[in-house]
Amino acid sequence: MLQFIRNRASVELLSRSFRKYNVPESSGQLLQDLGFVHMSMSGVFHLLPLGLRVQEKICRLIQQSMKSVGAAQVSLAHLSSKEVWDRSHRWETSGRELFRLSDRTERELCLAPTHEEDITQCIANLVESQKQLPIRVYQIGRKYRDEARPRGGLLRGKEFVMKDLYTFDIDADQAKETYRQVLSAYHQFFKAVGLPFSMVNADTGNIGGKLSHEFHYRSQAGEDTICVCPSCEFSTNSELLKEIQPETAHPCPKCGDELALSSSIEVGHAFLLGQVYSSKLGANVEVNQRLQPLYMGCYGIGVSRMIAAIANVTKDSKGLVWPTNVAPWKVLVVPTSFKNMQAAESVYDTVANVVGTDNILLEDRSNHSFGYKMKDAELIGYPFVVIVGSQFQEQKLCEVHVRATGGRHLLPVESLHQILLGNFL
């Protein structure tokens, strides 16, 4: 029977997963202990199949949000030249965080930590008329920053995955409208992820511009402190307020009420750049018979950082608790014993029709007890575990465990969609 299952290519089997199976000793590095990632060196991580699946789920949600604002996906080169960074004056101001290297002709290059210079130079060579505007392009790719003190696993590393969107408009008003639309798309993206988040005013920093917002998850693992007023809409990164001390009460500058301070992890950032880069890199368009620099915005989401942030925010004493839309697998089907494997495969087929074959996994390992498998399922954090045992054989009933709530539901196979489609959550 097991051989029959293994020959079915459409069935996703847990035994084929490439990961650790040891119970971790420390909850501080669950992603490494459970085989989501593997540290190659300080600040550099390999994504293993489970971690890659979470990243892919996040990327799909990002692609949906970018589609909603009409952005086209591109892939920009990792290598960038000193010449283009000199034009923006950031070759020197970026300091030691920039990975610098030379090719065989002694041409100076860097591994791009961001792509404002390169995309602006590209647009400067492509835009010939204001009829081509607005332009909205984004990429999801690896970035590089020589962090002095990498920490928190994927939270702060030397190599990381980001989504960056770059927008180009004809004037300041249209650029502000684009900014508003992208912030709205970001709200929809973070809502789709399924965790509470905060949007706060932020410093523009080394990138430049005059308007900036950050998106945060509240967590003790975070390096940032955000200030939110419970009485009005004021919210900001503490960097924008002088003399903020965590143990001291601070009045809101807008209404006077006491600000609530909390540690947080920044996972998204938006900048309204204006003409900072376009004026220096020649991204111009003719307006009223005069060349005018384009108005630009840039918008980032820390994709790999989000994996660690979500894990930190949701984990409990039993392990990880992935939100349904970003879980590596939404559903794990577990037979209570080997004799129930054929029935479990039947349930797998039924559930796959509800959630899709890309979201369901069959527990087929024969070298572990049922108790071990259930504990392992809690550690990994599958949103739903469907148990196939004697009650299925006798009454066609399955027991469904909901990881986020701890709820348990006994349902006939034909009613499983009530749980899996979220009606009980």
Automatic annotation (TrEMBL):
It comes from the Eukaryota. It catalyses: tRNA(Pro) + L-proline + ATP = L-prolyl-tRNA(Pro) + AMP + diphosphate. One of its GO terms (cellular component) is mitochondrion. Keywords: Aminoacyl-tRNA synthetase, ATP-binding, Ligase, Nucleotide-binding, Protein biosynthesis. It is an enzyme of class 6 (ligase). Pfam families: HGTP_anticodon (PF03129), tRNA-synt_2b (PF00587). One of its GO terms (molecular function) is ATP binding. Its EC number is 6.1.1.15. Residues 51-323 form the Aminoacyl-transfer RNA synthetases class-II family profile domain. GO terms for biological process: prolyl-tRNA aminoacylation. Belongs to the class-II aminoacyl-tRNA synthetase family. This is Probable proline--tRNA ligase, mitochondrial. The lineage of its organism: Eukaryota, Fungi, Dikarya, Ascomycota, Taphrinomycotina.
